[in-house]
Amino acid sequence: MEKILEVKNLHVTFTTYGGTVKAVRGVNFDLFKGETLAIVGESGCGKSVTSNAIMRLIPTPPGEITQGEIIFNGEDVTSFSEKKMRTIRGVDISMIFQDPMTALNPTLTIGNQLMEGLRQHHKVTKETARRKALEMMDLVGIPNPKERLNQYPHQFSGGMRQRIVIAIALICEPELLIADEPTTALDVTIQAQILELFDKIQRETNVSIILITHDLGVVAKVADRIAVMYAGKLIETGTKRELFYNPQHPYTKGLLRSVPRLNMKGEALSPIDGTPPDLFAPPKGCPFAARCDFAMEVCERVYPDDSLKSDTHRVNCWLQDKRAEHLLVINYRNENRGGGKQ
Ligand SMILES: Nc1ncnc2c1ncn2[C@@H]1O[C@H](COP(=O)(O)OP(=O)(O)OP(=O)(O)O)[C@@H](O)[C@H]1O
Ligand code: SF4
Ligand SMILES: [Mg+2]
C-alpha cells in the first residue's frame, strides 16, 4: 500500500511561564492511502497537538516543533514556508477541528464558505464552484441544496452545520483529512449518519483519514488501524482487530477494557486509576509506570524500545521486550518469595 504520510520522531513543546510542556515526545506513525487511523488516549495526551503539527498550526510562540519530520507525499512539511503551507492547508490536507460549531463564519452564506477554498486554490469560475458546492451538499446529505446555499449558519441545525463543516473540509478533494473529535457534539443518531458519511466519502474519494475520538464505538465502526497515545507518545499501534482482541500494553488493555467486541455503540474509553505524568518533567522511563500494575525497576529507568508483535502491531512495553524476560522471572520469584508461605 502507498504511504501518504510518515510522521517521524515528532517532538512539540510549549514554552510557558511555568516551564516547558513536552506535549509530543517522539511520535512515529505512517498513514496509507484510503485508510482510517484512529488516535485514542486520555485528555491532554497530545492528540490535538499532533494533528495541529501536521497542519502546521502550532501557535509559535509558545509552541514549537523541536524535532522530527512530517513527510506528506514525499515532502517534509516541517520545512515548508507559511506561504507554501497555505497552498496545502484545506486543499491537500484538511482538518475538522475539535470545536466544529465555531468553524463556520456566521456572517457569510454557506455557499460562500463552501466556494471560498475552491475559488482561491483551484481558480475555478463562479459557476463551476457553485456546481461543486451543490454536489458536496448533496454528498453530505443536505436537502434542497439550491435553496440552502444562500442561507447562513444560524439557519442550520447542529447536525447540518457539522455536515457543512465536513463538506468544506472535503470540497477541494484533499488526500488527507484530519478529524479531531468530529462527532462529539452531536447526538447519537446524527453521529451515526456522519460516520456513514465518512465511510461513503472514503469509498468515493479514497481520502486517508486520521480520526481522533474518545468514543470506542466510533473507533470500532470506522477505524482500520488504531494508535494509542499516552503522555506525548504512541505506545501501541496495530490493526483494529489486533488492538481490540490482542492488546499488549497494560494501558491499552485498561483503556479498551469495556470492549471485548467490535459491534458496540457509543461507549467511552474506560477511565484508568491515577493521573498521567506531568509533561513539564516527564519521566525518563515508561510514562505509565506510576499507574502500571506490572511495573518493574527497568520501567522507571529506561523507555522501552519498539517490540513488534506482527508486521502491523507495535508496542512499547518492557513486558514485551525479549531482553527483559529474565527480569520477569526475577520479579515473579521475588513476588512469590515476598508473598511466601509463612
Ligand atoms: N497553547 C498551548 N500552550 C501550552 N500548553 C499547551 C498548548 N496547547 C496544548 N498544550 C498542552 O499540550 C498537551 C497536549 O494537549 P492536546 O490538546 O494535544 O491534548 P488532547 O490529547 O487533544 O486532549 P483532549 O482529548 O482533551 O482534546 C496538554 O498538556 C496541553 O496542556
Ligand atoms: S513498560 Fe513497564 S511500566 Fe510501562 S507499561 Fe510496560 S510493564 Fe508497565
Ligand atoms: Mg484534543
UniProtKB/TrEMBL annotation:
Keyword Membrane among record annotations: yes
Domain ABC transporter: residue ranges: 5-256
Subcellular location(s) per record: Cell membrane
PROSITE patterns: ABC_TRANSPORTER_1, ABC_TRANSPORTER_2
One Pfam assignment: ABC_tran
Bilayer topology term: Peripheral membrane protein
Biological processes, Gene Ontology terms: peptide transport
Record carries keyword Transport: yes
Any one cellular-component term (Gene Ontology): plasma membrane
UniProtKB keywords: ATP-binding, Cell membrane, Membrane, Nucleotide-binding, Transport
Family statement drawn from the similarity comment of this UniProt entry: Belongs to the ABC transporter superfamily.
PANTHER family: DIPEPTIDE TRANSPORT ATP-BINDING PROTEIN DPPD, OLIGOPEPTIDE TRANSPORT ATP-BINDING PROTEIN APPD
Protein name, UniProt field: Dipeptide transport system ATP-binding protein
Taxonomic source organism: Pseudogracilibacillus auburnensis
